[in-house]
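Troubleshooting entry. The earlier prediction with heme C gave an output that would not parse, so I re-checked the input for stray whitespace and re-submitted. Clean input:
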Amino acid sequence: MHGGPFHVMKRLLLLVLLALPAVAADKPADVVRYRQSVMKAMGAHMTATSLVVKKQIGDRSQLAAHAVSIRDLSAGLATFFPADSSPDKVKTGAKAELWQKLPEFRAAAESLRVEAAKLAEAAKKGDGRSFDAQFARVGAACNACHDRFRVKDSD
Ligand code: HEC
C-alpha cells in the first residue's frame, strides 16, 4: 500500500528538519553587537538633534525624522536582551541586574518610546520651544535606563 503511516512520518520528519535552521537561536555575541549598534544609531540621532537644539545647525527639517527613528528603535529594544546575553554568558555593557528586573527594564524602554513619540509630535507642529524641552526629556529617558542597567565605564 502506498502512503501508509510510515510514509507520513518520513514526510513529517523532513518538514521538521527543513524548519530547524529558521528556529536556530541567534548567537549571544551577535545579539550584543546588534543591540549596541542600535544604541549607537540612537546616539547618533541624539547628537545630530542636539546640534540643532543648541543652534549650531540652523536647519530643523530633519528633526522629526530623528525623533521617529528613536521612537521606532526603542519600541523593539527590550526584545534584544534575551537571557543568554547576560554578562555571566557573554561580554556586554549591560548589568546582570537587567535580567533580574525585566519589568522595570521594559518600562524604561517604553518610557523612551513615549517621550520620543512626543518629540516627533512637537517636531511636526513646528513648535521649537516645546521641541527643545521635550528633547531634554528624551535624553533623561536614555540616562534613566543607563543609570540602572548599563555598566558605567562601558563607553
Ligand atoms: C531600556 C534601557 C535603555 C534605554 C531606554 C536606552 N539604553 Fe542605551 N544602553 C542600554 C544598555 C543595557 C546598554 C548596554 C548594551 C550592551 O553592551 O549589551 C546600552 C548601551 C548604549 C550605548 C553604547 C553602545 C556600545 O557601542 O557599546 C549607547 C551609545 C547608548 N546606549 C545610547 C542610548 C541612547 C542615545 C538612548 C536614548 C535615545 C538610549 N541608549 C536608551 C540600555 C538602554
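This one parsed fine. Residues 32, 35-36, 39-40, 42-43, 46, 70, 77, 92-94, 98, 105, 108-109, 112, 138, 141-142, 145-146, 149-150, 154-155 surround heme C (CB under 6 Å).
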